[in-house]
Design a protein that fits this description.
mainly alpha, 6 helices, 69% helix
């Protein structure tokens, strides 16, 4: 396969991006809510901003892995990451490398892309749309 033929695999690679991003994002929620795979940074109220963020990370990441409700979930998570970046990282510095906000910024833009692009070929959204 030549490089020019890679475009034919875009829907599958989009699905891989969605799955990997969802799995990685779920880890943040699992840490906050379940203290897994690493201990939580401290006790917090589930109804606090940190607790709600953890639920969104865990559940939203899981929905992204499945490719279910991809567009609305990705849009919500993109907004959540924008808030996280501007609330917790940007005040420290203009530069993401300095303010340690690269991950929040990258998640924000990946999720925004998924909100527009959808779940790809390997998603429950795609399967449900074929049945409809």
């Amino acid at each position: 396969m030549t490089l020019s033929g890679l475009g034919g695999r875009a829907p599958q690679v989009l699905s891989l991006l969605r799955i990997v991003a969802g799995l990685m994002f779920m880890q943040h929620g699992a840490q906050k809510i379940l203290s897994f795979p690493a201990p939580a940074h401290g006790p917090f109220d589930l109804m606090s901003q940190m607790g709600i963020g953890g639920v969104l990370e865990l559940v939203g990441g899981g929905l992204l892995v499945l490719g279910l409700f991809t567009r609305p979930v990705a849009f919500i998570l993109s907004g959540m990451m924008a808030v996280a970046y501007f609330q917790f990282h940007a005040p420290a510095s203009l530069y993401p490398l300095v303010n340690q906000g690269e991950l929040a910024a990258l998640y924000c833009w990946v999720f925004l892309y998924l909100a527009f692009a959808g779940g790809g070929a390997w998603s429950l959204d795609s399967l449900l749309n074929k049945k409809a």
